[in-house]
Amino acid sequence: MREPKIRRGFGLAALGVATALATGCATIPTESPVVASSPGADDGSSEVRIEVRPPQPGATPTQIVEGFLDAMSSYAPGFPLAEEFLMPDARAGWVRSAIEVYNRTTLDQPEPSAAAFPDATQASVRLAGERAARIDAEGRFTAVAPGSEPLEYVLRLERDPAGEWRIDNPPDFLLISSFDLSRTYSPFSTYFPNPEGTVLVPDQIWLPAGEPQLATLLAQALVDGPTDLIGPAGVGNAFPTDTLVGRTVLSGGTLTVPLSGPAVSDTDGAARRLMVAQLAETLFPLPGIDRVSVTIDGEAIDVPDDSSQLSALAGFADPPVYVLADDDVVRSADPTQRSGLAEVPGVLGRGELASRSLAVSLDRTTAATVDETGTQVLRTPLTEEGQPVRVFQGEDIVGPSFDRYGNLWLVDRRSAGGPSSDIRMVQPDGAVVAVAAPDLVGARVTDLKIAADGVRVAVVTEGAAVLRVGHIVRGAAPAIDLTVNLAVEGTVVDVAWAGERELLVVVAPPGGPPRPYSVSVDGSAVTEGSVTGTTSVAAYPSRPAFALTDVRTVLRQTSVLQWDQVT
Fold this sequence. Notes:
- By secondary structure, the chain is mainly beta.
- The protein has eight helices and 37 strands.
- Strands 1, 2, 3, 4, 5, 6 and 7 form a seven-stranded mixed sheet that branches.
């Protein structure tokens, strides 16, 4: 058993009087499906397993709590070892729910001697630490700003019939250190169709990487539906809510997913094709899976896998990445090649439009620029003969960003009547639509970028929560709902969608030069780039990104950490 005091993230103070601290959270899928494992069942785990011993005879209350924390940090279906540290009644009623993640690494107080209470029948141990993150009932990860939320819980212990100390009031959540979370849990993407059913939208959740039936959990997550990160955007789901998911079996590269239930039995061919596409896109990243086979009530369904056709980039040619340089010349680069930049045709390539920001449509036929005064938005075809057309005029415009439908999104920052950031959507026919954004009332927006799936959006604001991620609710009265706040130490200079679940963010830390960071959409992973002096970034999902620096050089991203100079 590893020495818990080396990495224990809580202060443990033994108390002579039992104290109750009530907490309450919802349930997350920390339980394994009630199925039997066998050789050949899917197991994509790369988890490093650490041996945790059961309660030792004569263990003190503090040692019992330490062992309980260790057992919660080492995932096993049903957590049978962790239950051994509980009183029988508490064991029967213990419901694993949300995960509270902590990041302190030392004990606050030395362990008291067992001789201090040899005849006591009750004791309490106070856990005091610092919350680093939480994972909610849906498996959604939410980062917590360092030092902003203390975490405290008082565990009450009693003697069991054998006279050993056991915990009587386990929390309604798992307590796991940041290190142990990275060791035992991983983020996975489930996929749901956009409102039109033309694109699969990723929804990131966290699950135990060591779960023998990980594929089954992911399939069940599809049936359960999307989290509130994208669910309110009207994304669909081909799976009826009463669908039952059986134990998945992987054999020869084919994963069989058994489904049953009255509603799923009555689904038509279109729904079944979409179910297969959702399953394939969700499960293919697991190791060893080359094909997904679906059975309904024991009978295999023979439908094609349309997942590749439902990619957010399906139908768009393999595109170049566009860069607006300081000389107002728009240049493009093939992200698959290590070549330099080429000027685009027409007025943009000749530097005839003095501009402060640039957006290019997903089909790479049209560019939108904000002029140097920040008061006009021009839309220009990317052809030699293409001429700019003014599509919007405002006071202080930031953005812009195209969505997959050809709509142009921008923010007009106004000062009259108090600071405001009015979001507008310019449709392909030129009509301007106001977009509601209740989360941005009174905020000063500095950037807005739409994901390639057309559902998710990233917004940068001034203040504490400078980077926010949410979804778009479309319709006659479109709206933006921001559900994730990513606190960043410094000023966000630029942001771009670099992948399905990754943002490329340029941040200027206090007193330091700006540099690029790769940030997961839930804030669970942040990787610092190797260059400084970055002023802007240009990216296309799943392609190498480009960056401009304050000395007018262009850099090409060659890895998460490395950037090489192009010009």
